[in-house]
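Table S2 (continued). Query chain:
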Amino acid sequence: MTSPNITRKSQGFLYPIPFVEFLGFNLTQFENGLAEIKFDLLPEHLNTLDFIHGGVLMTLMDVAMAAVARSVDPLLSMITIELKTTFMQPAMGEVITKGRLIHKTASTAFSEASIFDMKNKHCAHATGTFRYVHNKNQANLNKSASD
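Corresponding output:
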């Protein structure tokens, strides 16, 4: 399997996430159960009606919800167990995704995320359940921290 040359890069994420880098998401807030993601909209992100494709919106919210869960324990990664999405109106132009941690146990996190356009109109909302897992990159981070 070959992959296209990825010229876009994400910013703000602790670990590399190839799909997120491909989409060009930028994590602009990551602390205390809160996260915010922005990205540069490209024509490839649109559907046939020139709205942001629902799959891109769902991915934005999925990543934001995983980020809020990780923000309270950055060395762990998340696996999405359940995701419920509601689309309220078309998202056009620049958008911002805001996530919030609702509840956390030792192994599971419950979070929500919303997407707003630049006029602060609520375009989409999602809730999700995530399982904490150890990240294969954790050993590399621990080694770098001790160097």
